[in-house]
Structures are given as C-alpha cells and as structure tokens.
Amino acid sequence: MPSKGSTLPGNPKLTGRRVLLIEDDWFIADALASLLNGEGLEIVGPAATLDDASRLIGTTAVDAAVVDLNLGGVMADPIVEQLTLSGVPVIVVSAYDTHPFVESVYATLQKPVAATALIRALVGATQGTEPSQQQI
C-alpha cells in the first residue's frame, strides 16, 4: 500500500478504467495486458475467441476495447459490431492494414503497435475525445 502523499503508478486519465482485451496470441495478449496494467487500466480478459469475447461483453461493463481482427483464423467482425453498437469505443490492433470497420471504430493501429500510440488512443477513447477514423 502506498504511503500517504505518494502517487500510484499509471496514467491518471486511465487509472481505474476497464478495457476489454481481445487477442488470440498469448504473448501479445500478455505484453498488452502488462502495458495497460502499468498505465492503471483494469484488464477484462484477455479473450482469445469470439465465444470468450461474447461472454465477457455480456457480463462485464467496459470503457473501451482493444481488438485483434483475426482470432485464430476467425475474423472478429461480429464482436467489433457488437461493441460499437453498444457504444463501446473500439481500438483495432491488427496486422491488417485495412478493414471494413474504419468508419465505426475509434482508432486503427498497425501491429506491431507502438505503446505510445495505444495509450494515446485509449486516453482519447475513455475521455470522449473525437475518434480518429484513420490509422495512427
């Protein structure tokens, strides 16, 4: 427990926010979760399949979602649509340079993603800043 007057680590704009992490590669999911935890975010997931992601969406409120489009060869289109229709800002992190959701997602980041770009997108998404409809 921090001593009185000390500050907790992390980004004050993100601390306590809940982010759904949807990524099928364990190493990438672990690295992203560590990065986001370090910024003070609470990670929901990670979910590696559409079924896992749907279960989490149905049971847990989140402030934003970080989604890989290709989950073990299955495209995450239904999950992206479900999240955007429910008002959850979606940040796509994918090796694909284009995708059909460019108008509906908050931001699109190309893998390998720069930590600063992901954090900047999450701050904007959770603070209600206008979405970027282009790749960051």
Can you walk through the features of this model?
- By secondary structure, this protein is of the alpha/beta class.
- It has one domain: 3-Layer(aba) Sandwich (Rossmann fold), CATH 3.40.50.2300.
- Helix content is 33%, strand content 21%.
- It has a five-stranded parallel sheet, sandwiched between helices. Strands 4-5 form a two-stranded antiparallel sheet.
- Strand 4 and strand 5 form a beta hairpin.
- The protein is globular, with a radius of gyration of 14 Å.
- The N and C termini lie far apart (37 Å).
- Mean pLDDT is 87; it is low at 1-8.
- Low-confidence sequence ranges: 1-8
Fold-level CATH name: Rossmann fold
CATH superfamily: Response regulator
Biggest sheet features:
5 strands, parallel
Architecture (CATH level 2) name: 3-Layer(aba) Sandwich
Summarize the SSE layout with pairings.
Blueprint lengths: L17 E5 L3 H13 L3 E6 L2 H10 L4 E4 L2 E2 L2 E2 L1 H9 L4 E5 L12 E4 L4 H13 L9
Parallel strand pairs: 1-2, 1-3, 3-6, 6-7
Antiparallel strand pairs: 4-5
In short:
The protein is α/β, with parallel strands linked by helices and about 140 residues long.
Short descriptors:
globular; alpha/beta; 136 residues; disordered N terminus; 4 helices; two-stranded antiparallel ribbon; single chain; 5-stranded parallel beta sheet
